[in-house]
Amino acid sequence: MKKPPETGIVETERLFTRLLAGMLVVALLLVAGALVGMAAYVNWPQWIRWTFTTPAGGRFLRQIGHSVRLSILTSGATTVIALVFGVPIAYVLSRFKVPFPIVVDTILDLPIVLPPLVAGVALLTVLRYWLGPFFDALGIQIHYTSRGIVLAQLFIAGPFAIRAVKSAFDDTSPRYEAVARTLGCTRFEAFVKVGLPLARNGILAGAIMTWARAVSEFGPILIFCSASEKTAVLPIRVFLYNSAGDIAAGVVTSVVLIVMAAGALVCFKLLGGRRLSL
Amino acid sequence: MIEARNIRLRLGEFVLDDVSLRVNRHEYFVLVGPTGAGKSVLLECLAGLLRPSSGRVLLDGEDVTGLPPEARRLGYVPQDYALFPHLNVRENLEFGLRVSGRDSEIATRVPALAKLLGVTHLLARSPVHLSGGEKQRVALGRALAIEPRVLLLDEPLAALDAATRRNIGSELRRIHDETGITCIHISHNFDEMIHLADRVALMSAGRILQVGCPADLLRRPACRFAAEFMQTENLLPGRATAVGGAGRVLVNGLELRAAVPCAGQVWVAVRADRIGPADNDAAADRDVNVFPADVASVEDVGAGFMVRTAGPPDLTFLATRPELVRHGIAAGRRIRLAIPPEDLHVFSDTPLPRGT
Lengths: 278, 356
Known about the structure:
- The complex is a heterodimer.
- Chain A is an all-alpha fold.
- Chain A has helices spanning 5-40, 44-53, 55-95, 101-113, 116-130, 132-138, 146-170, 175-182, 187-198, 200-215, 219-225, 234-243, 247-270.
- Chain A has a single domain, classed as MetI-like (MetI-like fold, Orthogonal Bundle), CATH 1.10.3720.
- Chain A contains 13 helices and no strands.
- Chain B contains nine helices and 20 strands.
């Protein structure tokens, strides 16, 4: 019996949907598989027992604790600084005509597409070699310190924050502020009372992504602050363990990082963030 | 009184080309024109949201061209209402008084406004989930709260469904009449203008083509564009010669008398309600244009019957049911039509503005 043509169409469509679903599954397996596979390298019950019962485990715990603290402190400071400067800059970029927009855009985007190592080299060259004597004279050391870490993170995460916050402002119509002004607000009041609250969720989402970006920063910190005990934020710690051949410790540290990043991502999604631009 | 003097501004595809406009105190003024005519741009210039590249804006005789919007005290209601979604209805209404440090007036003014606009039951709600009509009322209330010198309404009815539109339309007029506030209302809708306006300005391509009361625009369009925008049913080219204190226009072989002198290449505009079947004794009245015509079609349009006659010239007129019966008007019948000369609007078309 000949099939009616509709059946053929339905079958083609089903095949197509299955193909797409299959590709999604492969992608999910690749990411999840790599992470789970990595985590499975460690015998967790044994590892936890070792951590809490042996002196070597205690030392490991202190190192990880130090790194978590340092990471949270530096990335927190970076996020705050990035927002304090980023929100007004983003507002200006979103609401006003900026001269040479392409040039401005490109300069702001450059750190995002730049190889992170190059950012480190740039920071080191400028702050250590060009401006070093000046800072030395003031008795301020930047490189190889947590200040340096913040600066290195800021170099990448700052422009990222500006972009994220700008898109939050772009998503809210300037008409609200226009109405606010006809009701008696100055430009500044309209920004504070209307523009800012309306972009709040977008700004928070941007802040979380900025923080996630800062916390996973590695290349510039390695170059500008080197990989030492003092500057061992979590990514540097992973690097140190791996260099020393302690793969298991590297994996455990990585898992800590993944949990933090995943937490940030969940917060981001809950706040209604849709896009991860760059 | 608010006045625009020789405003020029280019803003992307929009352009204001030497626009002057004067709206009197207590007037309900409607700015009509097709999309892209520059109506909103002009309104934003008046509000101070846009700075014209030349020209001046005067408010009660005072030059406010250089003043920012917050110093003008004008009520502005944008087309999308732009109610603050992070505030509830009450806070939206209070906003203007709060930011201008008039907190003491909130207790009396806000409830009175809510009552005037019938939104008292909505005060605690978020504006996000209000219906279009409710949003419009709240936006209106928010603008009125500061007791603005002029109320600027950008297409206030465009986003509403037909029933709500009529409703809010008469509401607008009522509020205007009760408060005596000067209103400038942008519209691209013909009916809105007829129902609401004391005076109208017709804009196209960044210029004002005609200013007058709705009846003026309706019956005496200044140019062909105005006649077409006002949906003049009978718009015909003709050739006029002045005869004494009046004129004669030759339209498609038919000679019609006009009440005013005219000459040369002209357009003749006659609205459908100004043409009618001729009574028997009308022929004796030498002042009225009477001529025979063949009925092509009769269409029921609710308020009457639109009758089309085959010319030359083709004409359209509005007849009542009794007229249809009395004059035996039906497709295929020959009837006699009458047009009083004073209802024959004759004008020579000025060149259309740039961009149309």
